[in-house]
Amino acid sequence: MKLCSGQRDVEFYADSLLPHKNVVIQSAVVNEKRRLEVVINGEKLQYPGVWVRQNCHCPECFNPVTQSYISSLKKVAYENLKLKSAEVSETGDSVRCEHTDGHITEFDALWLYNRRMTKDGAKERHATLKISTPVSWPNPSDMVVKRISYKEVTETYEGFETFGKSIIEDGIVIMTEAPEGQVFKDFIQKTGLTRTANHYGEFWYVKSEPNPTNFAYTTSELDFHIDQPYLYNDLNIQVLHFLNQVTVGGENIMSDAVKAANILKERNPEYYHALTTTEFVYEDLVAHETHSPQFFLTKSTPVINLDENGQPKAIKWSHSCRSSFFNGLPEQYELLMKAAQEYHKILYEFAIEIKNQPGDMMVFDNRRLVHGRKAFGSDEPRLIEGWYFDWDMLYSYLRVAMMKRKKVEP
Ligand SMILES: [Fe+2]
Ligand SMILES: [Zn+2]
């Protein structure tokens, strides 16, 4: 018979994010379905016998360095294994299970409780990993965009948490006092937030050019838009680092487009329906350097994209990337444009204006917010360094920052 060292010798990093609870196993049996049945703090919980075996943490079954299970369906014939017995430790802080092949598996009480197969357990874990939820913007006069220094974000876990949570909750945050010059590489190196590849390159500069290849590289007003709605892999989060700013004009106009979609739904359900169902075609055909079409990106999508619960989640809107192709009927286009015009009015009704200064890095959700800019003169330089990163990486480093902060806290 092999004795396993048990879970208590293994550190499970993910558990440190879950709320700490004092839990005691009051009883443990193998029930008639051959499941492990325990009562923890008065709550009866069941775990399949096969799950108990698959999640054994003995050195034969688990590698604590990679935090992954070694046992595989090839090596272990789970269908022939059954749970034989379960025994609670004297203090109720762990349970020891024996399988029919003599293998022993030991679980810590809280570890087991954190993995309870109940709706409430799943809800708690989901909320923990999501960290926070979007908060609809208040009226423009009450909207405060959080500002935090570049140093705090890139050098402290608390700063990084504030930064990440603001993007989740408000869809926007401004880092201040960024180092002079290009900070793209420094930011990525310090935060781990690798850039999202796209056909404009690793990063790009927004500046007015004599022969602009993109409408953003003019001095004109930019209407509300999201960047690159023609991509299948959405650009998630956008960074605009202001290296130079003009004295007059050049303000950024931002709006919570999900909030505006919800308002449109209340005010005009027919328009809302059109914007959530009829598809618009977006495209990008112009080459970055040579002006000859070296790429052709296109996507057909409704303006308002819904989530799995039917709620507005992402906005696909950019007039400058709109294609002249339309895959619907003439009357659908007419209705769609009326709806878009109304939606646009709501976007402006709840918009805020931000005049970023050199050293400011405005970071925002490119799916939830729309952004625009006011026109400016050509006698002063206005230069912005920009790039994108993904939600996956932000969530990943946020969870890491939260785990590390918990570890260093007394
Ligand atoms: Fe843009
Ligand atoms: Zn094992």
TrEMBL record:
Its cofactor is Fe(2+). One of its GO terms (cellular component) is mitochondrion. Keywords: Carnitine biosynthesis, Dioxygenase, Iron, Metal-binding, Oxidoreductase. Residues 180-386 form the TauD/TfdA-like domain. InterPro entries: AlphaKG_dependent_hydroxylases, GBBH-like_N, GBBH-like_N_sf, TauD-like_sf, TauD/TfdA-like. GO terms for biological process: carnitine biosynthetic process. It holds the Pfam family TauD. Residues 32-113 form the Gamma-butyrobetaine hydroxylase-like N-terminal domain. Pathway: Amine and polyamine biosynthesis; carnitine biosynthesis. One of its GO terms (molecular function) is 2-oxoglutarate-dependent dioxygenase activity. Belongs to the gamma-BBH/TMLD family. This is Gamma-butyrobetaine dioxygenase. It comes from Bugula neritina (Brown bryozoan).
